[in-house]
Design goal:
Keywords: Endoplasmic reticulum, Membrane, Transmembrane, Transmembrane helix. This is Endoplasmic reticulum metallopeptidase 1. InterPro entries: M28_fam, Peptidase_M28. With 214 residues, the protein is an alpha+beta fold. The protein has a single domain, classed as Aminopeptidase, CATH 3.40.630. It has five helices and four strands. Strands 1-2-4-3 form a four-stranded mixed sheet. Helix 4 links the parallel strand 3 and strand 4. Helix 3 runs parallel beside helix 4. The radius of gyration is 23 Å and the shape is globular.
Length: 214
């Protein structure tokens, strides 16, 4: 066909570029400006029970400052675990009397398949439950703190770890209500075939009360 050999006029390229710029401005930029204003440390006293973005960002900075946290490395197995435990203990000291606050650290080994084994991977866990709760089921919130060898893992998955930590703080310092206990699982071996989560689901006592976990 003749049109296949015809060259488009220069203004087609300009129109194509302009279309995507307009689309970006109309959708992406508008969505950014619709986001709520992030709260800072100065806002914390007046905004109890709300997400303090600067506090979560500070924790993310501490975590990523450890550098890459590869499974088996000191940064992952010692430094990151200590950072998590220190932050959790600080939250525990601030919790309201409404909650029971249980902290556990799991070092787990097991077998994934006939040829794949995992050994001494770590999980840091908190179970937050109302003292009046009689629910037989738990809700699980899970994120991993280990990384690839080439990255400090800000987005994979440090940001989610920081959000979880801030959410834990908000809930633990509130007065409920909370019908079902919540398990916060900070797992230390996701990049290695999800071994830490697998170890939790298969071997930890809390996993038995999570719906969908065998």
């Amino acid at each position: 066909m003749l049109w296949r050999n015809q060259k488009l006029n220069w203004y087609y390229a300009a129109c194509f570029t302009a279309f995507w710029i307009i689309l970006y401005a109309a959708i992406v930029v508008q969505q950014v400006y619709r986001l709520p204003t992030p709260l800072t440390h100065k806002d914390a006293a007046k905004h109890t029970g709300e997400f303090i973005a600067e506090r979560a960002e500070d924790f993310l900075f501490k975590l990523t400052s450890l550098g890459p946290r590869v499974v088996g490395s000191e940064a992952n197995e010692v430094q990151a675990v200590k950072l998590l435990m220190d932050e959790i203990r600080e939250i525990e000291n601030q919790k309201s009397d409404y909650f029971d606050f249980e902290v556990d650290k799991q070092v787990v080994s097991g077998q994934y398949s006939a040829t794949r084994l995992y050994q001494s991977v770590q999980n840091v866990m908190v179970k937050l439950s109302a003292k009046t709760s009689r629910s037989p089921n738990y809700l699980l919130i899970n994120a991993h703190f280990d990384t690839k060898p080439t990255s400090p893992g800000a987005s994979d998955d440090g940001a989610m770890v920081s959000v979880m930590m801030e959410l834990l703080r908000i809930l633990a310092t509130s007065n409920g209500p909370l019908e079902h206990p919540i398990v916060f699982l900070f797992n230390g071996a996701e990049e290695e075939s999800l071994y830490a989560s697998l170890g939790f689901v298969r071997q930890h006592k809390w996993a038995k009360k999570l719906q969908g976990c065998d």
